[in-house]
């Protein structure tokens, strides 16, 4: 399979399961309504696992522009391939958002709260303070990228190395921890495509009473994660850990 198609599919799966769990928790008359933050954090962690397991052998399973750009900055991914990966990730997230809407269409119709409808597709701050919100996203994405890279450091790999099954599982635990520990202020986008693609879908879909797509905030989950991803990759490189995850 072409790596770009792999990134498209991986990011689409990420959003289907990630936005899907939010829909299940916040929309009216679902089986999981009001089941809470732990369910959302767990669902998003599983979403990462599914996306990574599905396409890791094909594309390296970045499924996140912050990861792609961070790896490129430290020379672990070729710059000429970056734009293609970013486009594939954004399109995959956009299609994933549409499929979540298709699965929960009747529940969108039964929900009057426009903010909850938007929350299915994209993140938003608990307290709107753009400086604080960007800092939160930088910190959360820094921990994501630095954490993922160090998991594959030679000292952790040992003689036998991680099996192909274990690596994505550890990333799942990392994402779960980020959601539980750093998700409160902004909903932990930590991924520009995961937020922007579904936000565009929200703007275009015929959802009754959906309200606006909060474009005033949309730059936060794009800029913050990119900065955080670069910082995480730079620290990893500066620490001299050595090898990074295989990429295409």
Describe this structure in words.
By secondary structure, this protein is mostly helical. The chain has a single domain, classed as Glycerol uptake facilitator protein (Up-down Bundle). Helix content is 67%, strand content 0%. The chain has helices at 3-26, 37-59, 65-73, 82-103, 105-110, 114-121, 130-151, 154-157, 166-182, 192-204, 220-238. The longest helix is centred in the N-terminal third of the chain and has 24 residues, at 3-26. The chain is globular, with a radius of gyration of 17 Å.
Keywords:
single chain, 248 residues, mainly alpha, Glycerol uptake facilitator protein, 11 helices, 67% helix
Task: Give the total of beta strands.
Answer: 0
Residue share in helix: 55-70%
Gross CATH architecture: Up-down Bundle
- Structural Rg: 17 Å
* Largest sheet descriptor: none
Which geometry do the CA atoms define? globular
Give the low-confidence spans: none
Structurally, the number of domains stands at: 1
Please tell me the overall pLDDT. 93
CATH topology: Glycerol uptake facilitator protein
Distance between the termini: 12 Å
Strand proportion, as a percent range, falls in under 5%
Q: Give the SSE order as H and E letters.
A: HHHHHHHHHHH
Please tally the helical runs, counting DSSP H or I stretches of 4 or more residues: 11
CATH class division = Mainly Alpha
Instruction: Provide the CATH superfamily.
Output: Glycerol uptake facilitator protein
Helix vs. strand class: mainly alpha
